[in-house]
Structure formats: C-alpha cells, structure tokens
Amino acid sequence: MTGYGKAEVNLPSGKITIEIRTLNGKNADVSIKTFLLPKDKELSVRQEIATSLQRGTIDFFISFEQNAASSSKQLNGELVKEYFSQAQAISKDLGIAKFNDSEVFDTILNYSDVRDAKKDEIITEEDWPEVDKAISTALAQVCEYRDKEGLALYKDITSRVSKILDLDNQVEAFEPERMEAVKTKIQKALDDLQAKPDKSRFEEEMVYYLEKLDINEEKVRLRQHCKYFMDTIDGEAYPGKKLGFIIQEMGREINTTGSKANHAGMQKLVVQMKDELEKIREQSLNIL
Prior knowledge:
A four-stranded mixed beta sheet has the order 1-2-4-3. 63% of the residues lie in helices and 12% in strands. The longest helix has 44 residues, at 128-171. By secondary structure, the chain is of the alpha+beta class. The chain has ten helices and four strands. It folds into three domains: 3-70 and 122-144, Ribosomal Protein S5, domain 2 (2-Layer Sandwich); 73-114, no CATH class; 147-284, no CATH class.
C-alpha cells in the first residue's frame, strides 16, 4: 500500500506541484494537507483518490511557486492620481510657490496602499481541468509504484507459502518414529508400575491415545488453507483483508500440529513454519 506520486502544472500565476504519499492502512484515510485546493473541489478530489487507491493512509499535498510577473507589485493608478491632485490643490491653497511635481510623485509611489500585490485566486475555475489532470497523473504514479512493490511482495509471500508446504511434507518423515516413541513411552510406564492390563483393553486405549496425537487432519486443512491463499492472491483484485483471515486459519493448524507433535524434530519444523507464517502476516499488511 505504500507509494508516491508527483505531477506539476504551469498556470498563468505560477507552478502548481501535486504530491501524493501513501502508507499502510485498513481503509482509505485521505488527508488533504493544503489550503490551495478550492473548497468546492475537495469532495470530488477525495472521492477520486479513494476510488483509485482503495486503501491506505493517504496524504495529498499542493504547493505553489509564484512566477516573477505574478509576484510583482501592481500600482493603483486611480489612487495615485487622486493623491497627486489633492497634493496640488493643498499646495495652491497654502500658497506654496515651489511645488516639486517629481518629488511629490515619487513620494506617492511609495505609499503602501498604492503598491498592492496582485490578489488573484491561485487555482481558478479555468485552471481546474489542468490541475485535475495533474492529480490523475500523480495518482497513476502512485499506482505504478505500488505495482512494482507488489510484484516483489508477491514473489516473497508466495515463496514462503511454498516453504510452509514443504516443511509440512517433511513432518511426515517423523510420523513412524514419533508413534513408536509414544508406544514405547507408555509401555515403559506400565512396566515401571508393574501393571498387567487386559491386552485387548490396552490396545483399545493405545489406539484412542494415538488418534488424539494424529495430525493428518491438521495437515490436510493446512494444505487446503495454503491453496485458498494462493487462489485468493492470484484471483482477486484487492485480496488483502481476506488473506489476513486465511493466515489466521493457517496459524491455527500449525499451532495444533505443534501441540500434538511430541517430537523434537517435528517441533523444529513447526517453529520454522511459524516463522514463515509470521513473515507472511507482516508482509500481507502491505497488500490492498
């Protein structure tokens, strides 16, 4: 879900720069971090961003760089004329013989109220189509960034799912040894107690106990969950949330296998499966 996009557009008043940054998030949380966006456009921009990016913590920026012509001062000609006319009239009323037109004019030009900066709206309705086009360009860059990251993410996650399946297959090699070790352990306990149970009843109890330790169902369900994981990541446009639920089910089967293992070699494989699954869980937070 992480990404970055940037686009620029030149307006009569200066250069507008659009930037969009995204991080992981459960929903589309759009934050407009600018006062330059016209208020009547904010809702449509939010909708455009949310529709395009779907999920994530999304920051939207607009910056403005004024050009030289726009930033220059504009004289208020009518006010200059009025000041000059009043100065001439007052000079005449006071009988000032030497009225210096040039000095008075220069003085008036330095008055702050006749040297107002242009106060035109930065993004006008006429400018909006170009600005909106730049927003779409920045969004396309974010999506392209996400696609590149997603390809690497896909390869990493799917390889780890394959690793879990491989480790689960290795568990089978320990099954005969594990079951024999359990039988030996129980028989030794009976011998130590010098107990002589009914042979038929003993065998029934042994079968019941060994069935409790059987992990075939867990192995079948884990493989089904792994297949469902791959079908989902390959077949859905935005599988992130569903993958999170599937990962929970995969973890449940791995944990149950570990609790039934009673074998050091199997426990080692279970730990490795848990490690791979935790890395899948972390990486899945980046998936839409």
